[in-house]
Design a protein that fits this description.
single chain, alpha+beta, Beta-Lactamase, Heat Shock Protein 90, five-stranded antiparallel beta sheet, five-stranded mixed beta sheet, 10 helices, disordered N terminus
Amino acid sequence: MDGPRPFVHPEHDGVPRRPFTGRCFVPATSSYHFCSFLGPSMQNPFRLTRWFAILGLLTTALVSVASSLLLSRFLVGNLLRQDANVSMEFVQGIVEVQHARSYFTREREADNNLVEFFDRIATMPDVVRANVFSRDRTIIWSSDSSLIGMKFEDNPELDEALHGKLHVGVDTVGTKAEHALLPATVLRYVENYLPVRSGQDVVGVIEVYKNPRALFEAIEDGTRLVWWSGVGGGLFLYGLLLWVVRRADRIIQSQQARLVESETLAALGVMASAVAHGIRNPLASIRTSAELNLDSPSATVRESSGDIVDEVDGLERWVRDLLAYAVPESGEPENVQIAQVLDDSLGSFARVFQRRAIRVATSSLHEAPAVRGDAALLTQVFNCLLTNAMDAMPSGGLVELAISKPPDEGKLRISISDNGAGVAPEELPNVFVPRRSTKSTGLGVGLPLAKRIVERFGGAIELVGRATGGATVNVDLVIAR
């Protein structure tokens, strides 16, 4: 049979497994794939800020324009009606004093006092024309004598006033027949139809055309203020809500990232348990067999056996890192002598470094103060970083460890540098993202695990390129007090 044989685990009743490539490990018959476990909603997230920016702007603009339009119309209508009410009360008072009912019904001619009253109306400030209508729609008096005796049948505003309703409106010259002979120098008028009452009966109507410049200016100022307030308030509200939504969106994205990480850990836990169970026992047998040959009289056998032991140890560390990433950390931070942790890590790599011609240079390690953390977890962090440095220098090189003080007060910086191939600039943003490995044989869990551990203890970790080649990882830890 050509090709690799599928691995059959005794506990899975002969279910075939895909060959393990260092990336995914799931049953071949399963439709659930670890590398694509995210659903469509995770792969195509809802852009809350973008949608709110568009829809919120449209809605805010619509509400601002509508409210400004309604308020400006309300303001204009109230100012005009208030002015008309004052005029109507003034006229009604004079009519009652003059007992003018008979004049509107034309039972008798207007005397000098009533004519003087009408003339006074015509000469009021801003009045352009005044017409007095009887019940039969006939003009019985006008400031323009040529209109006296004329009748206007098609006049809805006059009909409203004859039914006792005050009519107020703003018109332009030439829109109605009764606008004939109005001055052409003024294009906009306030047209008031003032019902005249005698008791409960409407006996006539006084029509007043006015050009109130001061009132028009007040209306324009008020309308301008309403629009500026509406637009300004809308923009302020939109900006405030946009800030709140952007902040909420960031929180949602952060929580979503944590949810994705939790689901990733759950999938890794399943995978890690299968890998550990299926690999660790054979690894132990392989290592034991290789150790038996370390005392062989043949130098070639001893060298080959040593290589096997080193590779098995490396694979064991890889499995251990995988399990550590999948299992949440526990325990509380304590004071840790970081110098001892670094010595332990370097000691565990001494033999493999020697075999791979990797030199180690340290600076001020034993002068480092204690830090807050967990000795076992921090050892795992530095083992991961030393492994990455070793993998970056397959032909040998130099690993440098240095202690310094970072810009953040109260922290200690441990820098691990190598002179290997380094990391491409476009890969730097992804080095701490789970399952994003820059190595063809890597799982992409080492640096994310180190980041989780360091941040759990209030520290920070970063990877930067070196101008002379290679890379440097800076680990900032909180100094114990």
